Amino acid sequence: MRIPSAPTRRAVIAGGLAAALLAVASSARADPGPARIHAGSLVLIGGALKEDNTRVYGEIIERAGGPAARIGVITAASVPESQDPHADDPEQCSNSACNGAHYADVFKRHGAADAQWIPLDVDHVANADSDAVVAQVESMTGFFFGGGDQYRYVTTLLRGDAHRDSKVLAAIRAKLARGAVVAGSSAGAQIASGPDMVTGGESYEGLRDGSAPGYFDDPTRLGYLPEGGFGFLRSGLVDTHTGAYGREGRALRLASDTGHDRVYALEENTALVVDRPGSPREHLSVLGPNGVAVLDLRDARARDSADGWSLRRARYSHLTDGDRYDPRTWRVRVAPGKHVLAPTATTAVPPNTDVFHSAANPDGTPYSFRTTARALASTRGQDSAIATTFETGPQFTVTLTKGRGFAAFTGDGATAGTLVALQVDIAPGR
């Protein structure tokens, strides 16, 4: 069976989802209501979760009860069997049923007592209000939402313009409140978002054209759903595949446009673990080989001019394995064993002419923004670095600055890893 990795950057999602979303998109943001006190936890992965990532799978299983864990697998973000031309080929299929069976097998191989596909997809929307499926959900101790298109989760598990919970989603929400773990990768992490959940777009086009409510056939157009996703995590916007697809720019633009002051920008094969989401005791930690960027817009100021859009005084923190974060105090707690980095490089930070890893650049490099940020942190005597977008007309310039509060940490004593409060300024050029 062919499990989809990260969705292709230029893919146009089939099945009429674009038209459906445009029917419900509006410029007014849904009232998020009071935060719920949750005893459970979230494990949100930035996509491309590898089958051999024993630490992340093991974390989900441990939080679901260890050897007694029973994982409910939900893959409604995938196409249903009716839309998969390879549905009858177990080596090539990539639909909700075969993806669900795949993940169930992976969880069992990693030590779960049981893992079952929850039979939900856009061809079986009624199952989300089935008492039998609710009973199946009630028998689980943890849940995993797979990748694909997050709007399929909206159409499958939410009801009406007010986005009321289906019976199945209400049961999962109640399980989370009582202590269950809810995990997800890619679209399965995005759907945990509250209001203004991103629906697509590229960084350059987002910076140039701004965001708009809706879901668009043009995959470069920055769109969002004002009503949001399931609202499990409301302390910041959520984005995924961040460094691999260069999404830092789109995340900053969307947050600025919609009035959010924080984004959790998740990188691939790495988890953001959230304990007690929605409560005053909510805290976060990072698990995996890449990291999670926290984009801070509390002091940021955006401006539109004849030359284009600009943003000043945003801040970028990049958390790596073992680091913790308190959203209430905005404080990063660096993992034990990491030390303050003493910059040793004496040559200037290398030029970066594709800071957001443009899909239009066949020679582009993933994690380009992060690479420049780390190079600056490692360079002695250089307080700022300039990078540009691959595209022109206008070309955007990104300036990274070691300003007040900046700090960098290393785990091996030589290379930059965790970064805290690096200033980010974006300005249009010619």
UniProtKB/TrEMBL annotation:
InterPro entries: Class_I_gatase-like, Peptidase_S51, TAT_signal. Its EC number is 3.4.15.6. SUPFAM superfamilies: Class I glutamine amidotransferase-like. GO terms for molecular function: carboxypeptidase activity; peptidyl-dipeptidase activity. CDD domains: GAT1_cyanophycinase. It comes from the Bacteria. PROSITE patterns: TAT. Keywords: Carboxypeptidase, Hydrolase, Protease, Serine protease, Signal. Residues 1-30 form the signal peptide. The keyword Nucleotide-binding does not apply. The keyword Protein biosynthesis does not apply. Coiled coil: none annotated. PANTHER family: CYANOPHYCINASE. Belongs to the peptidase S51 family. This is Cyanophycinase. It comes from Streptomyces bikiniensis.
